């Protein structure tokens, strides 16, 4: 299981990478919930960590969509033009 990433590390990635990471995190959350339901989950704190990671990714994607923070390789002006 991967360690949780920081918001800055996520901002340094492209939108495609973030979407892939989001899909991976959602799959992991599903598997963790399944393990918890069957009594096989060893580390219950991992559920909380994965939920927070998903929320962090959604927040970064929304910031990009609104043009608040540019993602990697983009200037603030390019992001504002794309938002308009």
From TrEMBL:
Keywords: Ribonucleoprotein, Ribosomal protein
BP term (GO), one: translation
Gene Ontology annotations for the cellular component aspect, listed alphabetically: cytosolic large ribosomal subunit
InterPro entries the record matches: Ribosomal_protein_uL29, Ribosomal_uL29, Ribosomal_uL29_CS, Ribosomal_uL29_sf
One GO molecular-function entry: structural constituent of ribosome
Pfam family, one: Ribosomal_L29
Gene3D superfamilies: 1.10.287.310
The keyword Transmembrane is assigned to this record: no
Family: Belongs to the universal ribosomal protein uL29 family.
UniProt xrefs under NCBIfam families: L29 (TIGR00012)
HAMAP family given in the database record: Ribosomal_uL29 (MF_00374)
Protein name (database record): Large ribosomal subunit protein uL29
Organism of derivation: Nocardiopsis aegyptia
Gene that specifies this protein: rpmC
